[in-house]
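Task: complex structure prediction.
Instruction: return structure tokens for all chains below.
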Amino acid sequence: MTSVTKNDKYTKTRAPIVEALKKAYENPTYQFHIPGHTKGSGALPEFKQLIGRKALAVDTTDEFDNLGTLHPATGPIKEAQELAAKAFGAKKTFFLLNGSTAGNLALAMGLTKKGQKILTNRNCHRSILTGMIISGAEPLWLVPERFEDWGIWGNVSPERVEEMLKMHGDISMVWITNPTYEGVVSDIKSISAICKRYNVPLIVDEAHACLWNFNDHLPTSALKLGADAVVHSLHKTGGSMSQSSMLHIAENSMIDVDAVEKALKLLHTTSPSLMLLASLDAARANLESPRGRKQLQRAISNAKYLRSEIDKLEHIHQLKPDFGYKTDVTKVFIKADGLSGKRLESILEIDFNIEVESASDAGLLLLSNIGNKRSDMQYLVECLKKIDTANYSDICYLENKKHMPMLTPIIKMSLRDAYYSPKETIPKSQAIGRISAEVIAECPPGIAVLLPGELITEDHLPYLTDYEFIEVIK
Ligand SMILES: Cc1ncc(COP(=O)(O)O)c(C=O)c1O
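Output:
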């Protein structure tokens, strides 16, 4: 019997861009084209040392060295997109630079028009709103349940989607974020069935859920539940490099794929980074491989371990799927008695050298990643145990800043009209009663506190503690 070498294992899950880039690296040319650092020779030595000589040697853009092109997709890039479509169960996949933001912008620009009504959840990412500023479409809000104790939004109810579709006969698209940043899952299967009954396309922003197709213990991806298009931030949890994402078109999608592709071409850089594209190709190949599946299984069992240990603590609690909704097990939202989430975050950071995903007054979010080892989790658990039994509450402070916008906007003008109207910048204290001219959305979670065209009220002020001035309509 012949033994399986490391190389055989690698070629089983093909990664065409990675392979082409490797070939280019091994067969260097005399380079008289961009990027000007010319395989790193023109780079600052300290930078080159920091990121590694090879990283700069493979930093190139499409068209050169038989690497193919992104728009239109050709060569290894086309092949890699096709392999990704197969892996995620899509009809077509586009690789995205500028994150899922680029996907949301292209969907809005390609599929919506001025004045069209888009039904979307209030806690959508700002990129969806930016897309509507570009196209001139207007949001109609689905206001999810609020989990006040946790300071977060809950899931979108299918009944509310149906009510809104019934009430407004002119809704041209439904656009749902699933899961929420904290991992709360909506019933996309029912929402999709409703959209089909009303003959409107369903887009699902699955920025935080690119792993779902690779393990049965995670919720089901909207691509399998009848959505027409889905965006995935592979860079968030899938293992690709920052900024790289994917946009998938579902098998039986009713949307105009050419229109989305054209918009993407206009929105994308004309010098795509091959390194970012290769990292998408590599992340997909890894997730499909036995090694990647093991990593994901480990992330899930680490999350379960963390959750079971948190259950044993007296003063630290976790958000659990125990009142009528599901969650993604790998996203662990916790809060501590007598400590704000921000305070808990700083204790973890300063006293224990732990960096968390995000924190608010209410709590903080921990991600169990495919790259985390069991020993990382054990260390985290030990630290949480120490915090649970120590008396940190005497130095507890509240930031008195709200992070998660949980307001229902009062819209006075369309997003686009407001964005392009004459504006002025005024002190925040004078802004109440005025109409906002800007998107204010802090990242994370990138959910808008204020939209262009929204009436500014006193309720906004706790979210705006970092702002002295606000841009308003003149
Ligand atoms: C729900 C949601 N959609 C889209 C995005 C944009 O993703 P990216 O950072 O990949 O552009 C984010 C980013 O946080 C998000 O939370």
